[in-house]
Amino acid sequence: RSEAFGIGIVSEKEIDKVGIKRAVHDAMMIAVSEVEKKLKHSLDYIIADGGIYLLKGYDMESINKGDENHYSIAAASVLAKVTRDRIMLEYAKKYPKYSFDSNVGYGTKQHIKAIKKHGLCDIHRKSFEPIKSLLDGI
């Protein structure tokens, strides 16, 4: 049973500016802050999926394949994916040429073809592949 959850969102511009490692850290801090506000106290212990960077000032564990072995991590993974997919559906309305409603931002052949035809839109992360290589080739 969950008493609270938080979702941390950082923009694509922030990811390009500070890098993915720092952006993930910042998003986690936003999520933790949301939870602490809802609970009205600081967290005693945090578990996260493996590969997640530990947050200073928190008793925290990063568990390899945590989403396969802990319901709370699996639930957090689902919340993150659903949130991201909903954001991408909103972007699909704003940028219909890129088919974000079907590729949800992943570098499918159709998506790469749209980028080559129409160029980049505001939400493309320029520090990520294959965009980075496409920009290097210009």
From TrEMBL:
Any one GO biological process: DNA replication, removal of RNA primer
Keywords associated with the record: Cytoplasm, Endonuclease, Hydrolase, Manganese, Metal-binding, Nuclease
Cofactor(s) this protein cannot do without: Mg(2+); Mn(2+)
TM region positions: none
Domain of life: Bacteria
A single GO molecular function term of this UniProt record: RNA binding
PROSITE patterns, sorted: RNASE_H_2
Enzyme Commission number(s) from the entry: 3.1.26.4
Catalysed reactions listed for this entry: Endonucleolytic cleavage to 5'-phosphomonoester
InterPro entries: RNase_HII (IPR022898), RNase_HII/HIII (IPR001352), RNase_HII/HIII_dom (IPR024567), RNaseH-like_sf (IPR012337), RNaseH_sf (IPR036397)
Main location: cytoplasm
One GO term describing the cellular component: cytoplasm
Localization, UniProt: Cytoplasm
Pfam families the record matches: RNase_HII
Positions of the RNase H type-2 domain: 1-138
Keyword Nuclease: yes
Family: Belongs to the RNase HII family.
Role: Endonuclease that specifically degrades the RNA of RNA-DNA hybrids.
Name of the protein in its database record: Ribonuclease
Organism: Candidatus Dojkabacteria bacterium
